[in-house]
Amino acid sequence: MKNSDQWSSKIGFILAAAGSAIGLGAIWKFPYMAGTNGGGVFFLLFILFTILIGTPIMLAEFVIGRRGGADAVTSYRVLAPSSPWPFVGYFGTLVSLIILSFYSVVGGWILSYLIRSLTGGLTGMSQAEYGALFENIISRPWEVLFTQGIFMIMTVLVVKGGIKAGIERASKFMMPALFVLFLVLVVRSLTLEGAMDGVRFLLQPDWSYLTAETALLALGQAFFALSVGISVMVTYSSYLPKTENMPNSAFSVASLNIFISLLAGLVIFPSVFALGFQPDVGPGLVFVVIPAVFNEIAFGGLFLTIFLVLLLFATLTSAFSILEIIVAVMEKGNEQKRSRYAWFAGILVFVVGIPSALSFGVLTDFQIIGKSFFDFADFITSNIGLPVGALLISIFTGYVLKKSAVKEELQRGSGMSDGLFQVLYLLIRYIVPLAIIAVFLNSFGIL
Q1: Membrane-spanning residues where (predicted)?
Q2: Which residues of 417-426 are buried (b: 16+ CB within 10 A; e: fewer)?
Q3: For labeling, which of 149, 277, 280, 294 is most exposed (least CB within 10 Å)?
């Protein structure tokens, strides 16, 4: 069934799509991934992969979604009837469910920290004490489950309202607020003595970190941060009018994502280096080091609260898009059932996320290939699910859809030149699949 709900404006779509991209991927995951993988060289690879691979994949998803005009599964069925290709939509929906299941856990952590920050419970501690607090919070089963549940309720309440009344309205408020909060924090971070060491760490590549593993991690980060490979953008673009300039929207979203990742780095690394902390502490960077950093500066409690509000807004806008994929597949364009399916999908995500929520407490000893359930869910989605999904989407767009159909969608409403189309089509058809396969083979020691 073709979607009847649509974005009310171009800026509404761009903000929502950017909100999907600018979430934990940019603000939580990018800093700790860059911090543990050399800083500048990881950032450079991330930019290259975002432009040369992530953006063409986003455009491919836009083509599939707008031309199919339906959810992630039905769009493939419309474009390739009586074929196995709808599996890509099911695969993306499954990966989305797994991502949101552990993503919501981190959203719960943010709520726990925000509540403590608002009540003055995050001041006056050493880094060791902040580390102990983080370990204590994530190991408390009832707290992590409660806050994860609250985060999912907040997400469902927006998604059940639909595209215009729910996601677009929330994104139009949250995204501008996010930019303002970020700029305030960047100015404060860069004015600290010794901040330039952190800037150099982020922007000056250390080529000793240029390895196949770093490339695979940067590729996974580009996919994770742009929300491509799981048909998020197939779903969002299915609500686009035929007059929308899709290439312009894709480049706007990619540019905003790189810019926000840069801002996140400029908030965190100058502060970390200026105050003598280490950037390579991993996933706990924003929960352990950042509170300790803000504790060392004037009005640190206020700036920490601003940071946590920013982080919550970004996390929610991404969660909206991921839950929307699942809901759209369930309702199949029947808007009367949206509220019911939104609650059902939210409860399903919560239940699937329980093992991730308990990974650092009662399930600490439960390991899969040496990883906690939380880390395993992150690994299989970021390093396997997203790249495999992106590979399948590029193959579908480059080899299953007719070239004339892809060209028609990309040029509709954009006036894209034939030359630029040929470049993008070359990237989608050849460069993107080869790059993904090459990085995979190299990382497994085959190439």
Answers
A1: 12-30, 42-64, 85-115, 144-163, 175-196, 216-239, 251-277, 297-329, 341-364, 384-402, 423-446
A2: eeeebeebbe
A3: 280
Distance CA 264, CA 270 (A): 10
Question: CB of 187 within 8 A of CB of 306?
Answer: no
pLDDT means over runs of 10, the chain (447 residues): 54 65 70 84 91 88 87 89 91 91 92 90 79 89 95 91 66 72 80 86 87 81 75 79 81 84 85 75 71 77 83 82 86 77 94 93 84 87 82 92 90 82 91 81 61
- In 3-state terms the chain splits into helix, strand, coil percentages (rounded to 5) of 80, 0, 20
Domain locations in the chain as residue ranges:
10-443
Give the Cα separation of 220 and 35 in Å (integer): 16
Closest listed residue to residue 410, CA positions, set 297, 280, 248, 269: 248
Residue type, 73: V
| Fold assignment, 10-443 | Hydantoin permease (1.10.4160)
Place of tokens 């206020």: 302
Contact 151, 104 (CB under 8 A): yes
Within 8 A by CB and 6+ apart from 48, the residues are: none
Amino acid symbol at 322: I
Rg (CA), the chain: 21
Q: Would you state the structure tokens that stand for residue 368, as one six-digit string?
A: 């899969």
Query: What pTM, to 2 d.p., does this model score?
Result: 0.83
